[in-house]
TrEMBL record:
Gene3D superfamilies: 1.10.30.50
InterPro entries, sorted: HNH_nuc
Domain HNH nuclease: 221-272
Stretches assigned to coiled coil: none
Organism: Albidiferax ferrireducens (strain ATCC BAA-621 / DSM 15236 / T118)
Protein name stated in the entry: HNH nuclease
SMART domains: HNHc
Length: 352
């Protein structure tokens, strides 16, 4: 069944309701923010640019919750001025159940990453518990705002399943960076406004990085592995590296998720110049060729660094990013002060 793409008016209505959700909803915990991020990410990674529906299981969403909250189940505040290290409280009442479940799992099994956790037989019980919490709480209450229920995002589709409504997958894909930005900024404010976090936060200035970005230790491990794989050269300009940045090939600002196959080593100057821009055709071709030849090695490097590693997801995200840029008349970075328009030829890189 073919579904018509949302009209301009339909997309504006979606954004209006999304804005109302953030301003008029009751956020007693951070679960609703996590659910919005998870739905937007899964729409990009599993969906398509059409007006159709997208079926998701609560276990798929639960797995994304585990990945999002995994680092947040560790103490925050170590080494900060006037801070007492502790796990941040993410509920207005008792600690959020997902945080408690992950923290207990980490302590019992001594695993440092979600990837290592997935290999344990006990992980399925953790996933089942988190999926049950997701089903009972944010999935039930996310679409309640302004004193009413507006089922504009998804509806239940049987036991353990939800279905994004027609047009929602398209809108989540198109406005994914905005959804991420809104959810993350409100998430940070929610934690800061909880009085029980005052002693933990101290004079915090890196809370957002702690909540959502890879740790410095993970980036250093990623850099070490990439040096062994790619050699001592900048991915973009090809010259020898002295100092190196671990750069997101698809910019973090466009898709704020740390994925092993999306990382490359770059000169700090190349990294700053490219900034939040997609890379031009020759660089994209080189990156895709690298995925084709070194996917397994990048997976091993990522797993050792504690990063999510999935080559197909990384390709899907890149395809989504360039398609979005094409529809918006975007330009791609080739070298400092050198850009080229993103045109229809870019789609060929993903079909070759």
């Amino acid at each position: 069944m073919l579904h018509q793409l949302p009209s301009a008016e339909g997309q504006l209505l979606f954004l209006s309701k999304l804005q109302r959700l953030f301003s008029e909803s009751d956020f007693t915990a951070t679960y609703k923010f996590a659910l919005l991020i998870a739905l937007a990410d899964l729409a990009v990674e599993l969906g398509a640019d059409d007006g159709g529906e997208l079926a998701l299981s609560t276990r798929q969403i639960g797995e994304r919750f585990i990945q999002i909250y995994w680092r947040q189940a560790l103490p925050y505040g170590t080494g900060l001025v006037n801070a007492t290290p502790g796990i941040l409280i993410q509920n207005n009442g008792t600690q959020a159940a997902v945080i408690s479940a992950i923290a207990a799992f980490r302590m019992k099994h001594g695993v440092g990453t979600p990837q290592l956790a997935r290999a344990l037989p006990e992980y399925q019980a953790l996933l089942g518990s988190v999926a049950q919490t997701v089903s009972a709480q944010p999935l039930n209450y996310l679409q309640n705002f302004g004193g009413m229920t507006d089922v504009f995002l998804f509806e239940r589709a049987g036991l353990g399943k939800v279905k994004l409504k027609p047009g929602v997958m398209y809108c989540l894909r198109r406005f994914q960076p905005l959804v991420q930005q809104l959810a993350r900024s409100h998430w940070v404010n929610h934690i800061k406004s909880n009085r029980r976090n005052i002693s933990i936060l101290g004079q915090a200035d890196d809370l957002e990085d702690f909540l959502f970005a890879a740790s410095r230790q993970s980036l250093l491990a990623m850099a070490s592995g990439l040096r062994k794989l790619d050699g001592e050269k900048c991915f973009y300009c090809g010259t020898i590296l002295t100092n190196a940045d671990v750069d997101h090939f698809v910019p973090f600002s466009q898709y704020p998720r740390d994925l092993a196959h999306n990382f490359v080593l770059a000169h700090p100057a190349c990294n700053r110049s490219k900034s939040d821009t997609l890379a031009a055709g020759p660089l994209l071709e080189r990156w895709l060729d690298r995925l084709g030849h070194h996917a397994d090695s990048l997976t091993e490097i990522g797993q050792a660094a504690g990063m999510i590693a999935d080559v197909q997801v990384s390709r899907q995200i890149a395809a989504w990013g360039y398609t979005s840029a094409l529809t918006q008349g975007g330009h791609a970075w080739l070298a400092p002060s050198k850009y080229e328009p993103i045109d229809q030829s870019y789609s060929g890189y993903f079909t070759a």
